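Our platform keeps sequence and structure together, in a single record for each protein. This encoding replaces a full spatial description with a residue-level series of whole-number codes. We quote a single record here, exactly as it is kept in our systems:
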Amino acid sequence: MANPWHALEGVQVSDLGEKYFLFKFFKEVDIHRVIIGSPWTFKNHLLILHRIHENEDPLSIPLVLADWWVQIHYLPPGFIKESMALLFGNFIGKFLDYAMKNLSNGYKNFMHIQVQIDVRKPLKKKKKIMLSESNLRKI
């Protein structure tokens, strides 16, 4: 795992057993880059990362939550805004952040939202939204 992370002063990996590994970084910038760049996989297995705090037992942490960036497509123009990102994010999991993406012609046809997902639950792929004249006027 150290190679894709390109840690400035390397990373020390300890096998704690029970599919738990402790990654020790020596520079704060490396920790930040790895956490922000998640999700990470190793041999097609998701790595769920948690920053250990002082006096925290790594084996007592339930590693079941992962942060993902998700694309929301096929939204009418008035629906691409933060309030809708919050609603969709909380439908998928727990809303964390959003960033709208533009196509080359400047038209926003989808949005990115960051969500925290419980990996023990099945993924939600679709959500129908009902449009009416009154809903479109409020947006």
